[in-house]
Amino acid sequence: MSLIKSTKKAASARLAPGGKNGISRDESRDPIGYAVAALNSFAQSDLIDKLGLRKTSEKVVYEATRGGFLAVGAASRQFAKAGKRGAAGKRPASAQPRGVFDLTPTEDEQMLVDVVTDFATEVLAPAAAEANDACAAPKEILQASLEIGIPILGVPEDLGGISGERSAMAGALVHEALAKGDMGLAVAALAPGAVATAISLWGTDVQQSTYLPAFTGDDVPAAALALTEPQPLFDPLAPLTKAVRKADGYVLTGVKSAVVRGAEAEVFVVGADLDGKPALFIIESATAGVKVEADPSMGVRAAGLTKLHLNGVEVGAEALLGDTEGKDYTECVRLSRLAWCALAVGTAQAVLDYTIKYANERIAFGEPISHRQAVAFMIADIAIEVQGMRLVTYKAASRAARGADFTREVALARRLCTDKGMKIGLDGVQVLGGHGFTKEHPVERWYRDLRAIGLMEGAVLV
Amino acid sequence: MINLEAPKKHAALIDQAHQVAMNMLRPISRKYDLAEHEYPKELDMLAAMIDGLDSSGASEGAGATGVRRDADSDDKTVKNGANLASVMSVAEMCWGDVGLLLTMPRQGLGNSAIASVANDEQLARFKGTWAAMAITEPGTGSDSANIITTAIKDGDEYVLNGEKIFVTSGERADSVVVWATLDKKLGRAAIKSFVVTKGTPGMKVERLEHKLGIRASDTAVITFTDCRVPAANLLGSPEVDVKAGFAGAMATFDNTRPLVAAMAVGVARASLDLIRDLLTEAGQDIDYDKPTYRQSAAVAKFLQLEADYEAAQLLTMQAAWMADNRKANSTEASMAKAKAGRMCSDVTLSCVELAGTFGYSEAELLEKWSRDSKILDIFEGTQQIQLLVVARRLLGLSSAELK
């Protein structure tokens, strides 16, 4: 029941060890091998070297729309229709419970976390400030995220991904580890995976066969899961975007917000009301009526947030993803909230690590400020609350992975991560005082990023 | 594999504790809150039942003595053992009544201390005793290293002199685990604990406190005047090891703090369960999917409280799980205690507010729980002491650096 299993039929050629370096095609990697391989390819990549030297990031696409004018959606590749009509898609199996309270990740999960943590520390964190300014993730970083398999984490082996079973737990761990580096870049890297995961979870055979090969191949398209709308008191279960049935499909009209890398996205999964129930639709960016507007926000800026305008967008009947009863849609909302909770945990942990170091180094009144209870207790509180957030999030994620109901758990995780996450963001800046308010330190960015928790829906998915 | 559900193997135990709490403790909860200092005789029957379950193995080692860390079984499999069983069942019992749990025969904090540090001979000799714990003195609260009760070796005995306050079950227990210093000059390393059995000449219960909450549990002032205790009743090593310092005595806290956190978890859940019922009755259904800002303020408040509860509960389980799996858990034990203590105060007091005068009245138990909860953020180390422990460990600071 291994999560990351490299089998002959499973991984795309890129992921299989054989066929190069004098290795037989019969060779397969065990989990250790997979992790080592990912680390290795990552370490060898000269992209990484470039990142260190890079003066101006490639922000081509985003720059084009940054002024706020409306651009038509990115020209999308041809997603050739494939698969058997009317056939249900493949589904990842649920993880099997042992009934033992346990906080130890599986060996596979741990190795995945180690690889992603290195990526977050070595690559995301150093690039975060510049990506924030550019409102875009550097191409090299996104390319590197593909090399470690980020987008196909939620895609089952049968469909060319790496997930042996339901991956919500591994997904949460990866989201957390990435956000420890930078939330904005994490979201940018994770966005295509959200769409691939959604299609894996709820797609028909046609939808899976049409879209997933693009995500499991070498040239992964930008893609976005768009559930939010720019409305005060927005309720994702009652979207204002409408889908109206017509003879051979649907017509969608409305505005979605917090659409990650919208300007370059080739395919969107969009939430819309259909006959009074929320439903998901797959929309290719080149479809007539699709327009993308830059929407730089307070934080999570490296994710290149945009608004997606749907003006009488006509799609075929096969665009409907999941059921029409709102069941799959609701699960999507929950899994996305779970992903945001995991991101909050990662960023909050970054705040903790940073404030510990700073408080021990910063001298005031002749001694480190950490020697004062007023400061030390704030840091203790951050540590307590971030661990609470982590455990509540893990509980929801492990239930989701087992196929158990996690409605309550994810709601509590979201409430906790919203409240405590923001408090941690506040206190992170406070510990640094005036220095924390400047861009010399990352705490002000974390403060802005942590405000996203509780209002974001969609974009990421475990 | 990450899994944060209550252990499957403890399901029967937890259910049992819940049934006892519901059917035995709740019916007498208000009675002994009002009749402070009256012995809850109903508990003798219950204690006998618990002893029976214990010897049959059905209790999974749960209870005050469940905190002992076994030296054996060092295989790599993840264990759900007596520490986890204890916090789970203690939480259930405190969902019933925390005051009554604290005065449960043979389940005293002294029993936890014995289980934590006694050698095998002592463990056998003190089996079945009901042991209270005496640390605090009139001039020494959180700074327990400064106790002035003395223990002077005289032949095969130690002679104890001093005054102890806030001794839970100090009047009812069979024995008291007393902290005393062998030599004040040697500092905290010289502090040892002694089992003093009731009736030992020189030991006297002076009076019982009248309290804000946990009124079913007696809290005694005990004096020791030339009180002679067998040398064999010293728990742990009699040597004053300055290097090891306070560690021996403090090790008890790593085990008992999760238990107190579990008490807070239990009391908080009692309040949450009742308020949810009351809210539902008032037409306020909790919707976990709908954004909180689209629901009533009462429901939003409930969700915030429940989220905080969940965090405290899982932190508590984590600390116990680490003990079961022989991982150092001082930080996590203090995190759990700090979080659960403040969570319980917020939850119980907020639930009274939500219920209005209905909750404020003695006709319901919400007001009682909001009084009982206060002590849980104080004993076994106040909120502030827990933060000190956590902060020192995170920041790598000594007690001289971070005072």
Structure overview:
The complex is a heterodimer of chains A (462) and B (403). Chain A is α+β, with helices and mostly antiparallel strands and 462 residues long. Chain A has 13 helices and eleven strands. Chain A has helices spanning 31-44, 46-53, 60-66, 107-134, 139-147, 168-181, 183-202, 205-216, 327-361, 373-402, 407-432, 434-437, 443-450; strands spanning 70-72, 223-226, 242-246, 249-260, 267-274, 277-284, 290-294, 305-316, 320-321, 363-364, 367-368. In chain A, the strands form two sheets. In chain A, strands 1, 2, 3, 4, 5, 6, 7, 8 and 9 form a nine-stranded mixed β-sheet that branches. In chain A, strands 10-11 form a two-stranded antiparallel ribbon. In chain A, helix 6 runs antiparallel to helix 7 (183-202), helix 7 (183-202) runs antiparallel to helix 8 and helix 10 packs antiparallel against helix 11 (407-432). By secondary structure, chain B is an alpha+beta fold. Chain B has three domains: 8-118, Butyryl-Coa Dehydrogenase, subunit A, domain 1 (Orthogonal Bundle); 123-235, Butyryl-CoA Dehydrogenase, subunit A, domain 2 (Beta Barrel); 247-395, Butyryl-CoA Dehydrogenase, subunit A, domain 3, CATH 1.20.140. Chain B is 47% helix and 14% strand. Chain B has helices at 11-34, 42-56, 82-96, 98-102, 109-117, 120-125, 247-281, 297-324, 330-355, 357-360, 366-376, 383-395, and strands spanning 131-134, 150-154, 157-168, 175-181, 191-197, 203-208, 219-230, 234-235. In chain B, strands 1-4-5-8 form a four-stranded mixed β-sheet, with helices on one face. In chain B, helix 7 runs parallel beside helix 9 (330-355), helix 7 runs antiparallel to helix 11 and helix 8 (297-324) runs antiparallel to helix 9 (330-355). The mean pLDDT of chain B is 92. Classes of the chains: A alpha+beta (462), B alpha+beta (403). The interface between A and B is large, with 59 and 49 residues.
CATH A-level architecture of the domain at 330-450 in chain A: Up-down Bundle
Distance between the termini of chain A: 18 Å
**What percent of residues of chain A are in strands?**
5-15%
Contiguous low-pLDDT stretches of chain A (5 residues minimum) are 1-14, 52-66
Q: What does the overall shape of chain B look like?
A: globular
**What's the number of helices of chain A?**
13
